[in-house]
TrEMBL record:
Residues 2-229 form the ERAP1-like C-terminal domain. GO terms for biological process: peptide catabolic process; proteolysis. The gene is Npepps. It comes from Anseranas semipalmata. The keyword tRNA processing does not apply. Keywords: Aminopeptidase, Hydrolase, Protease. Gene3D superfamilies: 1.25.50.20. This is PSA aminopeptidase. GO terms for cellular component: cytoplasm; extracellular space; membrane.
Length: 230
């Protein structure tokens, strides 16, 4: 109804606040998707920072309850929920989440304590979103060293979280390099487009500037339509 302009978005946010004690992954996943759409729209307004504060307020109680480490008797959905919540808090700049993500990432890179598979994406997104050129270089190094395609794809999907314009360009150039399989290029560009307002503009310009190469690469396949969609 809010998307159709029938009711105020404020009403949606009030309903969302009622879910702070919700334990179900599917519900949180839906809330997260809706907040992501709202965040994207608000990134073009003065309310962007305020929606980040709202995200932190809504997601921090469940984040504190779940913590960083699996508890005995937890199911698969709890692990998914932990990844979702920590990623959301990290991207929004929740201080404790950001500090813990940086600490765990450092241990992971140094080989002291390898991150579990379900925590890698949220940690990577968090440190990139609030990172610099050194962070990006470290991620690209991890990509090069990864012996499993699953890990390479995981890194490719989150590189677009980086915020600085010159680093966004570096990620886009990387998307078309030989380091990335042709079928995975779309994921990297899509990640940039979904990462930030600057990323969206840069990705759109990049697609137009490289349209001939991209079109020749994918012809009429589903990847070209996916690229346009993102």
């Amino acid at each position: 109804q809010a998307r159709a302009g029938i009711i105020s978005t404020v009403e949606v946010l009030k309903v969302m606040e009622a879910f702070v004690n919700e334990p179900n992954y599917t519900v949180w996943s839906d809330l997260s998707c809706n907040l992501e759409i709202l965040s994207t729209l608000l990134s073009h307004t003065d309310f962007y920072e305020e929606i980040q504060v709202f995200v932190k307020d809504v997601f921090s109680p469940i984040g504190e309850r779940l913590g960083w480490d699996p508890k005995p008797g937890e199911g698969h959905l709890d692990a998914l929920l932990r990844g979702l919540v920590l990623g959301k808090l990290g991207k929004a700049g929740h201080k404790a989440t950001l500090e813990e993500a940086r600490r765990r990432f450092k241990d992971h890179v140094e080989g002291k304590h390898i991150l579990s598979a379900d925590l890698r994406s949220p940690v990577y997104v968090t440190i990139l979103k609030h990172g610099d050129s050194t962070t990006l270089d470290t991620m690209l190094k991890l990509h090069k060293q990864a012996d499993m395609q699953e890990e390479k794809n995981r890194i490719e999907r989150v590189l677009g979280a980086i915020s600085q314009p010159e680093l966004i360009q570096k990620v886009l150039t990387f998307a078309l390099s030989e380091e990335v399989r042709p079928q995975d290029t779309v994921s990297v560009i899509g990640g940039v487009a979904g990462g930030s307002k600057q990323g969206r503009k840069a990705a759109w310009k990049f697609v137009r500037d490289n349209w001939e190469e991209l079109y020749n690469r994918y012809q009429g396949g589903f990847l070209i339509s996916r690229l346009i969609k993102v």
